[in-house]
Structure formats: C-alpha cells, structure tokens
Write a structure and sequence with these properties.
By secondary structure, this protein is α+β, with helices and mostly antiparallel strands. The chain is built from 13 helices and 12 strands. Among the domains are: 62 residues, Uridine Diphospho-n-acetylenolpyruvylglucosamine Reductase, domain 2 (2-Layer Sandwich); 102 residues, CO dehydrogenase flavoprotein, C-terminal domain (Enolase-like, domain 1, 2-Layer Sandwich), CATH 3.30.390.50. α6 runs antiparallel to α9, α11 packs antiparallel against α12 and α12 packs across α13. The structure holds flavin-adenine dinucleotide and iron/sulfur cluster. The site of flavin-adenine dinucleotide has 32 residues, from β2, α3, α8, α9 and β8.
Length: 345
C-alpha cells in the first residue's frame, strides 16, 4: 500500500520532541469519530515499526518528528550510584555489544543481540523497541478492526492464535512484541520519560506496561507529548548473574515464539537468595513466573530443580486452541535459561 504524504521535522532536543505536539501512535491509530483522518504528529526513532504501520495503511500521520538528531541520547554509561543508563536512541546492536551491559546485565545483551537481523539491530533503537506495537496478524491487517483498534471483538481468541498468549489472554491475546523487555523487566529496569513541561518520571518498566484488562487499546502508559529519554538499570547486587534465551519458529530473523530471562542472586555458599524469572511472547505484558521465583529461593540450582521450575512457570496458563504447543517449549526454556544463568548451561 502506498504511503500518504506527510511532513517531516527533526527535533534537536528531547524537550523539542516533547513540545512538537506529538501524540502516541496508539492514539493516532484509533478512529476519530467524525474527525478528519491523518492529523496526528508522531515521534520517530529508527522508524522500523512506524514505517511498517504506515506501509500497512494502519497509520497516516500528518507529520513525523525524527528524534535521531538529539545529541547524546544514544549514550550508554554507568551512573554515580552504580546503575547503568542506556539512552533511548541506543541501537539494539549497541546494547548487545556494550561491555558494561555484557558484564553486568548479560540477559539484556543476549536479548538485544538475538532480536531481528543484524541490519535491523543497527537501526532499531531500544526506546522504539519497547514501544513497538504488537504483531497479532489481525491487528496488523487493515481488514480487521479488532478491539485493540477500537473495534468490537477479538478475532484471535477463536481464530488463528498459534502465536498468541498462553497467559492472561481473555480480553486480547497479543504477546508483548519486545524481546528486550523480557530481560529488562527481569533486571528491574526503569524507563525515563520527559514531557513538554520538563517533568521527568521514571516508572518501573513492569508498571509502565499496560494489560488489556486495564486498557485494551494501548500497551503502555506513555502519554501525549512524552518522550522516552533512557532505560535505567539498577546497580546489581554482588554475585548477580543473568541469562536470556529464545526459541524461534524457524531459522529466520523473526520475533520469538517463546523467550525467557532469568536473573539470580546467590549467597556465598551458592544458594539462590533472589530470583527473577520472566517469560516473553507468553502474555500481553512480560510475564513474571512468580511460582518459579519462589521455589528457587534458598535452594542450590541443579537439573532436577530446573526441570521442576520449568513446570511451575506454566502455573495459571490458559492456552488457546492452537497454542498448547508453547507450554512444553516454555517449560524446557525456563529450565535451560535457569541453568545457564547459574553457570551450568
Ligand atoms: C524482520 C523483523 C524482525 C524483528 N524481530 C524482533 C525481535 O526478535 N524482537 C524484538 O523485540 N523486535 C523485533 N523486531 C522489531 C524491531 O526491533 C522494532 O520495530 C524496533 O526495535 C523499533 O525501534 P525503532 O527505533 O525503529 O522505533 P520506531 O519505529 O521509530 O518507533 C516505534 C514507536 O516508538 C515511538 N518512539 C520511538 N522512540 C521514542 C522515544 N524516544 N520517545 C517516545 N516515543 C518514541 C514511536 O512514536 C513509535 O510509536 C523485528 C522487526 C523486523 C522488521
Ligand atoms: S489478540 Fe488483541 S490485537 Fe489481536 S485480534 Fe484480538 S484484540 Fe486484536
């Protein structure tokens, strides 16, 4: 489908981006009853998802405001409190290769490095990655006006749902599309956001994402006129290790059908003192496997425990007609990633 004509502007600072009159892409995609089409101003980073939505005929903005010329917004650096600051414009490739991230947050390096193709990773930004819209094929089809696009029904719940959610899928069964988000939620990351008034907020990423029960038309709590400036990782406790792995459908550069991130803290004797286990491509938002996390605390991690932990991760799963196959994949993947994070895989 041909793209409509649109204007192009370039912001030189985050404040300029916030003051540009930009709305969120989620709002720009909703029908305006009786209103003129194509009036929205939207922000653009790498443009991978944005231009896809425009080519698919799902988004027709009046103006794009490019953020890529904002100086320094791609920097990755250690902060004075020992945490890491990853600028919103850092590419997935930069995130995958940065020595501080490889050293302190291996799960994130692995999640970013395993996403998409090398060409896409060089263009795609971490901020845009977290804000990309879901891959549900009904959502991506102009012929289907589903709940998430302001329509009346979910086509996937009784339709082609093989790539959909196996948890929390009653209202809308999308899976969250960001692979990096799986690792970032496990690592306890925050997202830094500024608005046109210069106010800064830094919610936990876990709380920034929005479940369909809360609002089926948006995946996160980004508001009109807000610009994401960074992703913030807390300073890791001593003896923290992490890992991320994904399972793909085929040997192609595509979104995973399942991915898992594990972050472990261990005592001097090697027993697990804290565990974060997060499932990606499993639910509309990255899914914490709480039962698994709880059963690991106080234990030495070995193969038997890893297998049990994998099964526990499926607690409360409600697979749809065509995606039961994801259950054994998640059980096996949780076990493998856990052993890998524990240095045994
Ligand atoms: C073949 C293929 C395979 C892929 N595989 C994977 C995969 O395995 N895992 C995965 O996670 N992703 C995958 N992707 C998706 C890709 O990684 C994302 O589309 C990309 O990361 C989006 O980043 P971007 O910088 O291009 O964002 P853009 O397309 O520029 O923007 C995306 C959204 O974010 C908003 N936005 C961007 N930056 C900001 C900001 N700083 N402040 C406020 N709003 C902002 C835009 O308005 C837009 O709504 C794949 C894509 C393709 C084409
Ligand atoms: S799963 Fe969500 S996005 Fe997909 S058809 Fe259903 S409501 Fe729409």
């Amino acid at each position: 489908m041909a793209m409509n004509r649109f204007e192009w502007a370039s912001a030189r600072t985050a404040a300029e981006g916030a003051a540009s009159g930009a709305t969120t892409v989620a709002d720009a995609m909703l029908p305006v009853p009786g209103g003129p089409p194509g009036q929205a101003v939207v922000l653009k980073a790498g443009g991978i998802d944005l231009l896809d939505l425009m080519k698919e005929g799902l988004l027709a903005p009046r103006r794009l405001v490019d953020l890529r010329a904002i100086a320094g917004l791609d920097a990755i650096a250690q902060e004075s409190d020992g945490g890491l600051r990853i600028g919103a414009l850092a590419s997935l490739q930069q995130v995958a290769e940065h020595p501080l991230i490889a050293d302190r947050a291996r799960a994130l390096a692995e999640a970013a490095g395993g996403s998409a193709s090398p060409q896409i990773r060089h263009v795609a930004t971490i901020g845009g990655n977290l804000l990309q819209r879901p891959r549900c094929w009904y959502f991506r089809s102009i012929a289907h006006r589903c709940l998430r696009k302001g329509g009346g029904k979910c086509f996937a719940v009784h339709g082609e749902n093989q790539y959909h959610a196996i948890f929390a899928n009653e209202v809308c069964a999308v899976v969250h599309p960001s692979t990096a988000a799986t690792a970032l939620v496990a690592l306890g990351a925050r997202i830094e956001i500024v608005n046109a008034g210069g106010d800064v907020r830094r919610p936990l990423l876990d709380e920034f994402f929005v479940a369909p029960e809360t609002d089926v038309q948006r995946e996160n709590d980004l508001k009109e006129g807000e610009v994401v400036t960074a992703v913030l990782l807390p300073a890791p406790a001593a003896a923290t290790t992490s890992a991320h792995m994904r399972q793909s459908d085929k040997q192609a550069f595509d979104w995973p059908i399942a991915d898992v991130a594990v972050v472990l803290e261990r005592d001097a004797d090697g027993r697990c003192s804290k565990a974060s286990v997060v499932l990606g491509a499993a639910a509309p938002v990255p899914r914490r496997a709480r039962a698994t996390e709880e059963m690991l605390v106080g234990e030495m991690i070995d193969e038997k425990l890893a297998r049990e932990a994998g099964h526990a991760a499926l607690e409360a799963s409600t697979p749809l007609a065509r995606n039961h196959y994801k259950q054994p994949i998640f059980a096996a993947l949780v076990a493998r990633v856990l052993l890998r994070a524990a240095g045994q895989g």
